[in-house]
Amino acid sequence: MSRGFTKEDDAQTPPLIPPRAALPPGTPNYVTPQGLELLRAELTALEAERAQAEANHDNDTDRTHRLSLCNGRIALLTERLGSARLVDPAGQPPREVRFGATVALRTVSGGKVGFERKFTIVGVDEADVAAGKVAFVAPIARAVQGAKLGQTVPLRLGPQPEVVEIAGITYAGA
To answer: How distant, in Å, are the alpha carbons of 44, 99, 139 from that of 29?
Structure first.
């Protein structure tokens, strides 16, 4: 795009830095050992990206924008790392759903009876529904936390309430 079609102040506009995953106020930032490693690897990658931006002197406006973006993301990540509380799933009670548990649920009434789903309860930064990792603050995780193996729990995740049975509980490293 021609420089004639941009505003002079565009170069001065601070970049929009995407926020980290939401963590309710006053809620501890629990992380699994794998989650903590992912956060540290992300910090290493961002620091490398910042070093690359610092070394690039081809376009000072672009360089300044990239550095501002990197520094903002590093600041948010450093804050999140500083508040991280490591929870080792291997130390959790084996027959109770807690942070770090991989939970198997079986629908016993409402919804599709006999339907099974499985997910792992993790920290907010490592949550990935497609990979079967659900944040500990998600409604389904909160509904089953504290439940014991074989216990039934009411769920209201969609238009129709259902009751699920805790069909399995495993912990990585246990």
So the answer is: 20, 11, 17
pLDDT at 5: 55
Q: What architecture does CATH give domain 14-86?
A: Orthogonal Bundle (1.10)
Q: What percent of the chain has pLDDT over 90?
A: 69
Name the residue ranges covered by the structural domains of the chain: 14-86, 89-171
As given in the structure block, the two tokens for residue 149 are 């193996």
* Helix, strand, coil in percent for the chain, rounding step 5: 40, 25, 35
Residue 62 one-letter amino acid? D
Q: What 3-state DSSP class applies to 137?
A: coil
| Topology classification of domain 89-171 | Chitinase A; domain 3 (3.10.50)
The span from the CA of 73 to the CA of 155, in Å, is 36
Q: Give the Å distances, CA to CA, from 52 to 8, 57, 68, 70, 156.
A: 26, 10, 13, 11, 48
Mean pLDDT of the chain: 89
Query: Could you give the dihedral angle defined by the CA atoms of residues 141, 147, 151 and 152, in that order, rounded to the nearest 10 degrees?
Result: -40
* pLDDT, tens only, 38-91: 999 999 999 999 999 898 888 878 888 889 999 999 999 999 999 999 999 999
